[in-house]
């Protein structure tokens, strides 16, 4: 094969380069090769490499606007009408123009990067919040830097005392982390917008999830079906971190029972680790004896609820005839198992946090409100709950 020199095809003021590969004289040309080369020369068909040197001036000429307007439209800084922004974006896309992240950062003082701090990555809820945040950031033209605190207290100190302070992020989302006064003060001192997801954080805009109310709703659903011997599979004390989710869900469960005149029975509580395996083992303990067996289980997560369903089946029990099961989250497999659950829309929480931050990062916006924003949750009734014996 021999290669012709680069040839130029000019369109809309931009130079696009392409290579044409022509068979050597030693081999017969592939069928249609000559026609393909002719079409390329005629501009009817082009296989090309975009010229990496296309600049902002060429985008401005193509769109019929000033370079300043192009800069504002593509950076998101300053006012540009929606129609002009679309026109500039279309021209940039057609010409293959990509904004230099370094130049953009120097011009705007922003890194176009949001830091997300999460306690675990091996839990469906946390990974779903991160997924929602990432989708929203991609739509907004921002990158995501993820900090997982699975290494314990020393790693947490490093994140807040060093990594987040290197000015590599424009804002921070803290997922299910009860930030200390010192951590909040460090971030506020750097004038970095901060949004929390979970329980309330003093002085920080937080998307709050009412874990007490969630557990109450789950338990009230079972009470309304006529169950009174209701077990609870919650988190163990080792996982009672930050916003005390396991404790709060146990409180909600016990409140609902007490208001219905049912005395909570400590023997009907089993601690687990929010995994299917943990739920399976806990349910085996609760359901193993045929005497005084619970007729229903409130699991603090869908993963533990699914483990409970599998344990019941292995014990020869039929769900929901012999035992009803309800979870929390609306996990990906919940519908497959027909699991009744309390949906709390974790992806939506991640997207909402990003929406708040990006709005704050727009020029001219005031400081974030410290008000808490309650996040929605709802009962989703499927086939794992029914009246006792049905």
From TrEMBL:
A GO term for molecular function: transcription cis-regulatory region binding
Protein name as it appears in the record: LacI family transcriptional regulator
PANTHER family: HTH-TYPE TRANSCRIPTIONAL REGULATOR GALS, LACI-RELATED TRANSCRIPTIONAL REPRESSOR
SUPFAM superfamilies given in the database record: lambda repressor-like DNA-binding domains, Periplasmic binding protein-like I
Keywords: DNA-binding, Transcription, Transcription regulation
Taxonomy of the source species: Bacteria, Bacillati, Actinomycetota, Actinomycetes, Micrococcales
Domain spans labelled HTH lacI-type: 54-108
